[in-house]
Amino acid sequence: MSVDIADFIVVNALGGLDNPNAPASLTASGALVQTSEQLTVDARTLADAHASGVTAINVTLGYTMGDLPPYEHTLDEIRTWDAIIGSHPRDLMRIDTAADLAEAKRQRRIGIIYGFQNAAAVEDRAERIGTFAGLGVRVVQLTYNQANQIGDGSMAPENRGLTPLGRDVVAALNEHRLMVDLSHSGERTCLEAARISAQPVSINHTGCRALVDLPRNKTDEELRLVASRGGFVGIYFMPFLNASGHATAADVVEHIAHAVNVCGEDHVGIGTDGTITAIDDLDAYRDRLAEQVARRRAAGASAAGERSDTYPFVVDLRGVDQFRELARLLTERGYSASRIEKILGLNFHHYAKAVWGR
């Protein structure tokens, strides 16, 4: 038996809205440089999102990696998402404020939060943060796995922390009330940004390094510091949750439980790093996976723990029932309905109020 999540605000702090079974989709294409123009937001995508009970998704747009010009490509991606939302006004709405999360729930629309997974599009101009804010961006992850001009990512061996420009970018994010997301960041970059930020920061999709010692997971020091300053930590549904690379729903629960023990129940949520619509043919996808992993590795964009024999998602926690199934498992763990509501979205909602305003 599980709690009923129908009345919950459910927020995926990092996820996707796409039908991965469509030939041109981000997942199916296997392209190294993926763009929002590859998204397939079709009738199934929308029906599955509604059926899942999700209220809002922080989607990745803009430059993450590759040879495209970061700033120009990011502006194109924002326009693409504006068009997607404009084409589906009954189903989708852009989230600009914390109040919009509640409004999306009331209107039974899927909230779309514009977010970056790399702030490289800032280039050397921190004032561009104001431009992005004006275009609807609400979450800015400072780095991807590599180092950029702002700081070191989780796979940068030097672990150098923030650059002077990076400090200016954090200040600009504070000024414009955008979320400072420290997912994928190196340890020093994460700790320094959390300490200098005038507003709470987040790690929207991660695991706990105390359980699995991989660079994409965060140490207890990082988790505790983010939480102590009023921030938010989202646990992902990714292979990094198990040392074998074959993560299960039980691993997701263990990482959530550890994060709650370290951070407190008011600061932990979910950022699945995956879509709601499930891949139908896992055998065919497995055949493409080795090539995708090899491309990412050759480009220096992969993280330790990415392998051709592991899926970049949790097989038994996917599809339209993923949030209900997680609620059921957390109930079995002994969590109360109020704690589960916090984890599924209320904590993100409260964090959004602190950063974006009401």
From TrEMBL:
Pfam families given in the database record: Peptidase_M19
Gene3D superfamilies on file: Metal-dependent hydrolases
Swiss-Prot/TrEMBL keywords: Dipeptidase, Hydrolase, Protease
Transmembrane annotation, as ranges: none
EC number(s) from the headed UniProt entry: 3.4.13.19
Record's signal peptide: none
SUPFAM superfamilies associated with the record: Metallo-dependent hydrolases
Gene Ontology molecular function: any one: metallodipeptidase activity
UniProt record, GO biological process: proteolysis
Keyword field contains Metal-binding: no
Record carries keyword Protease: yes
PANTHER family according to UniProt: DIPEPTIDASE (PTHR10443:SF12), MICROSOMAL DIPEPTIDASE (PTHR10443)
Name this protein carries in UniProt: Membrane dipeptidase
Lineage: Bacteria, Bacillati, Actinomycetota, Actinomycetes, Streptosporangiales
